[in-house]
DNA sequence: CTTCTTACA
DNA sequence: TGTAAGCA
């Protein structure tokens, strides 16, 4: 996956080597190293660098961007975790929607809440 | 020639 | 962030 030397990435992102290495220090990207200790970047690294430029333009600082990616991988893990329990994204949305309706007391136990299968899903979700 | 690390008028 | 130095 990682085959691009820093020189190529510089041209592709219009960033200086200094900046690219600095963002690595800040753990915004994690390029691999080849046998000669040279940094090798993937296309995903390039995309991320381009993203970082946009965030910087939007006024975010390094730590702010770090938090964005942190929360991002956080949600990513939750999604995977739910999938492991047999719940698709649409299942989760449906369950969450039913919860709101019932908490508000605006809707008596409906078909969905009395459905054994949905109760089972709720229990899994509240793990 | 390209990249790496370290350091700083 | 830029840039120079000394290696690899």
Question: What report would you give on this structure?
Answer:
- It comes from Lentilactobacillus sunkii DSM 19904.
- This is HTH-type transcriptional regulator GlnR.
- GO terms for molecular function: DNA binding; DNA-binding transcription factor activity.
- Keywords: DNA-binding, Repressor, Transcription, Transcription regulation.
- By secondary structure, the protein is mainly alpha-helical.
- It has 2 domains: about 1-75, Multidrug-efflux Transporter Regulator, Chain: A, Domain 2 (Orthogonal Bundle); about 85-125.
- It is built from 7 helices and 3 strands, in the order E-H-H-E-E-H-H-H-H-H.
- A 3-stranded antiparallel sheet has the order 1-3-2.
- The chain is elongated and about 60 Å long.
- It binds a DNA duplex (9 and 8 nucleotides) through helix 2.
| Overall tally of domains | 2
Mean pLDDT: 87
Helix/strand order, N-terminal first: EHHEEHHHHH
The fold-level CATH name of the largest domain is Multidrug-efflux Transporter Regulator, Chain: A, Domain 2
Radius of gyration: 22 Å
Total DSSP helices:
7
Largest sheet: 3 strands, antiparallel
CATH class of the largest domain: Mainly Alpha
Helix content: 55-70%
> Uncertain regions: pLDDT < 50 for 5+ in a row?
none
Strands, count = 3
């Amino acid at each position: 996956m990682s085959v691009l030397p820093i020189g190529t990435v510089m041209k592709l992102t219009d960033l200086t080597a200094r900046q690219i290495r600095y963002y690595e220090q800040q753990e915004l990207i994690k390029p691999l190293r080849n046998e000669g200790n040279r940094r090798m970047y993937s296309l995903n690294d390039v995309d991320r660098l381009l993203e970082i430029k946009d965030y910087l333009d939007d006024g975010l600082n390094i730590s702010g961007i770090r938090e964005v990616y942190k929360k991002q991988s956080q949600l990513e893990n939750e999604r995977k975790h739910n999938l492991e329990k047999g719940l698709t994204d649409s299942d989760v949305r449906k369950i969450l929607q039913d919860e709101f309706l019932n908490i508000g007391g605006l809707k008596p136990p409906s078909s969905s809440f009395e459905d054994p299968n949905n109760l089972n899903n709720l229990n899994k979700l509240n793990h």
